[in-house]
Amino acid sequence: MSRSQRDFDAIIIGAGLIGASIAYALAKRGVRPVVLDKNAVAGAGSTVNSSAVVRTAYSTWDGTALAYESYLHWRQWREFLGVDDERGFARFVETGMIVPFETPGDLDTQLAHHRALDIPFEEWDLATLGKRMPMLDLQSFCPPKRPGDANFGVPNEAPLCGAVYFPTSGYVNDPQLTVHNLQCAAEAHGARFQFNAQVTSIDRDAERVQGVSLDTGESLIAPVVVNASGPHSAAINQLAGVLEDMSITTRALRHEVYYVPMPPSQSVEQHGFVIADSDIGCYSRPDVGDKLLVGSMDPECDPQEWIADPDHLDRNISGDQWKAQLYRMAQRMPDLPIPDRSSGVVDAYDVSDDWIPVYDRSSLDGFYMAVGTSGNQFKNAPLVGQLMAELIICCEQGQDHDVEPVSFSAPMTGVDLDIGFYSRKRGINEGSSFTVMG
């Protein structure tokens, strides 16, 4: 077995958006990381199929603060990176997001967080929503149902109450390109990326991580190892032997997202909002080629398919789920074209018990985790890298994060973010939506 010389300070497992962001943040602070990925290029895992929605509406204050700071970074993406990329730069399309609600007070928690953080929003009554989006059916259909339900499509007596418009929202047009952008920025500061590299063991002694071994027989030595391996994160944590003291666990969830033509009554220019509609259990956003992306918000009626082995994921679109998601969306958009042939993507996402990620150290000194990021942490990647870099550096300098949680001052808003909020030892956060909305 060959053993490399220690010419880097940290090993990051996973070259998705989160792993690349951590590499960039560490490298900027003088820590030399190597990023390992089993794929041939960066961002080829679950990141490539992300809906890439950027929004600030979260059910927790910490999630909202992190999302708003990240939104400000997306608005200055090229400046944040500070390098050139021969492939160009991913583009943040700032559409704004509409969140309809069926009961007064449904969004009070989210709005309280926005007021506290001075994030703009607009409250629309039903008349305003109808004026801004005249093509929408404003009846209420909650709770979301599947087409086989006898009451599917039967509206409630009362219509929707209205909606909240969050202007600080949109989507990133090319998820994989964002990772290449970060790779270029990280490499400019001394980071290395190594592809076609599958980790087979986490090397450790009784108290501290020593590095990793690969399926090629190569072993890499470093005092810090970071698990940012997306849907494979639980398996990597198991290899490291760090599961026992984790109150929050993660596992991989299979998800389907579909592409359909934009409804004839809508145009990207006038109506191309992100819409998060819990009344029908679906979200949507515009996409290139005058298309509409439609995803599930994980309502109770949609079965959850937990995946034991993400490497053997069934990537065939399910006809039943295709019908359920698009028929529910057609309740809100009556002229939604539903093609005869399905089109979309299937992938697995790393979900924690309460859909809030774990950004933390572990019981093994030198082993860190950025896991449980599901589909909803794409938007927070610019800040997650900086949070993790602060956490790693402080812990490696001797701070006991479990006793004295590390805090991070957001560079644009100046808000102090308590990284302990994302602890592996926390209890289930009952303030979470327990869905992809986080």
Describe the 3D structure.
The chain is an alpha+beta fold and 438 residues long. Helix content is 24%, strand content 24%. It is built from ten helices and 23 strands. It has helices at residues 17-28, 61-75, 77-81, 108-116, 126-132, 175-188, 233-240, 268-271, 319-332, 381-396, and strands at residues 10-13, 33-36, 53-54, 92-93, 97-101, 122-125, 162-166, 170-172, 192-194, 199-204, 209-214, 219-221, 225-227, 250-261, 274-277, 282-287, 291-296, 305-307, 344-352, 358-361, 367-371, 407-409, 416-418. Strands 5, 6, 7, 14, 15, 16, 17, 18 and 19 form a nine-stranded mixed beta sheet that branches. It has a six-stranded mixed beta sheet with strand order 9-2-1-13-21-20, sandwiched between helices. Strands 3-8-4 form a three-stranded antiparallel beta sheet. α1 (17-28) packs parallel to α6 (175-188). The longest helix has 16 residues, at 381-396. The termini are far apart.
Write the layout of secondary structure elements.
Elements: E1 10-13, H1 17-28, E2 33-36, E3 53-54, H2 61-75, H3 77-81, E4 92-93, E5 97-101, H4 108-116, E6 122-125, H5 126-132, E7 162-166, E8 170-172, H6 175-188, E9 192-194, E10 199-204, E11 209-214, E12 219-221, E13 225-227, H7 233-240, E14 250-261, H8 268-271, E15 274-277, E16 282-287, E17 291-296, E18 305-307, H9 319-332, E19 344-352, E20 358-361, E21 367-371, H10 381-396, E22 407-409, E23 416-418
Parallel strand pairs: 1-2, 1-13, 2-9, 5-15, 13-21
Antiparallel strand pairs: 3-8, 4-8, 5-7, 6-7, 10-11, 11-12, 14-17, 14-18, 14-19, 15-16, 16-17, 20-21, 22-23
Helix pairs in contact: 1-6, 1-10, 2-10
